[in-house]
Structure formats: C-alpha cells, structure tokens
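Quick review question:
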C-alpha cells in the first residue's frame, strides 16, 4: 500500500505543480484539495518511516536551492518549514542506510539539480525526452532495488518519482504536441524546442 501511496503522491504533486505554474488551476476548491491530498499522503508515508522523510526532504531542500524562484511561494516554502516536524516525530522508526542507498540518493539529487540548470524553459522536446528517460530510470532502479532487497524507503521514493515523472512526461507531450499539431502553419511552433529552432520563430511559451 505504501508504494501505491508514494506513486499517488508523485502524481498529485506534479499535477498541482504543472497546473499551478501554468495558471491552469483556477478553481480554488480544487487547488486546496490537491494541497490537502499531498499533505495527507506525505503524513502517511513519513510518520512511520524516518528514512523516507529525510530522503524526501533532502531532495526538496536541494531542489529549492537550485529553483529558489519556484520555492519562494507560500505553499512551497511552508513544506520546507513544517515537514521537519513529521521527520522529528518519526525519528524512532529510523534504520541504517547502506552505502548503495546513499549512492542512489546522491545520484538522484545530482541529476535533478543538473536538469534544473540545463532546462530553464517550462516545456520543450529536450525536456520531454529527459523526463521520459527519468521515468524509465526510476522504474529500472525499482526493479534493481527490489531484486537486491534494498530498504523499503528507497523504493517508496522511487515510486514517488515514477508518479511525478509520468505526469510530467504527459504534460510535456501535451504541451509540445497539441491536438492541432498537424494543422500548425509553417510560421508557428506548438512548443518551445530549445536548440532546434531559431529565436526569431514566433513561439508561444509560459
């Protein structure tokens, strides 16, 4: 059940993130529901798993450091302030982290940080390919970690990534290839394709 909840947490997190960042989430009730679902899922996943809480929080803290403009918002910044309370409460559930688990976490942290510097646009073909690669990488590491009986918290974080990157890939594909893709004239582009088109092309981007 924890794996499913982690997967669902990644999905709801990215749905809120993409809709809110692109001003598509105009219904206040829906916005608050998404926030509530995220906090409920994070509470369930963290309250009995100190290692998950530390790993998840570290990931978000690093992400906030490289994407300060995205995290300098009331809801996002409140996560960094309040989430440690859950981690402290779950401290008695802590377990020893192996070298391989720490290595995998560091690999995830570094790759995410590098991506933030490479892809500054909201959506692009390159970013779509990167998110698809990240999705299959997370699935691959779930299989590897399950085979070698790595700690449950690592697999939970990976399931969260799968949900997150799945929604991100769908959103990137939808943004880059809208329904009227075949009807687009030669003077416009449905997606900001960094590195493939000139700056003089009339591109609509967020």
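Suggested answer, residue by residue:
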């Amino acid at each position: 059940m924890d794996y499913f909840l982690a997967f669902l947490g990644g999905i709801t997190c990215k749905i809120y993130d993409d809709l809110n960042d692109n001003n598509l989430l105009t219904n206040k009730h829906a916005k608050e529901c998404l926030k509530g679902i995220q906090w409920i899922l994070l509470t369930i996943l963290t309250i009995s798993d100190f290692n998950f809480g530390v790993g998840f929080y570290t990931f978000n803290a690093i992400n906030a450091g490289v994407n300060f403009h995205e995290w300098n918002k009331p809801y996002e910044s409140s996560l960094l302030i309040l989430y440690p309370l859950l981690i402290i409460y779950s401290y008695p559930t802590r377990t020893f982290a192996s070298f391989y688990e720490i290595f995998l976490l560091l690999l995830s942290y570094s790759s995410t940080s590098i991506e933030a510097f490479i892809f500054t646009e909201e959506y692009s073909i390159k970013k779509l390919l990167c998110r698809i690669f990240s999705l299959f990488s997370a699935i691959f590491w779930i299989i590897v970690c399950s085979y070698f009986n790595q700690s449950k918290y690592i697999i939970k974080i990976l399931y969260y990534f799968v949900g997150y990157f799945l929604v991100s890939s769908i959103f990137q594909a939808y943004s880059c290839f809208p329904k009227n893709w075949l009807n687009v004239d030669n003077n416009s582009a449905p997606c900001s394709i960094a590195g493939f088109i000139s700056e003089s092309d009339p591109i609509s981007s967020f």
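Why it works: Residues 180-206 have pLDDT under 50 and may be disordered. Residues 84 and 162 are 24 Å apart (CA to CA).
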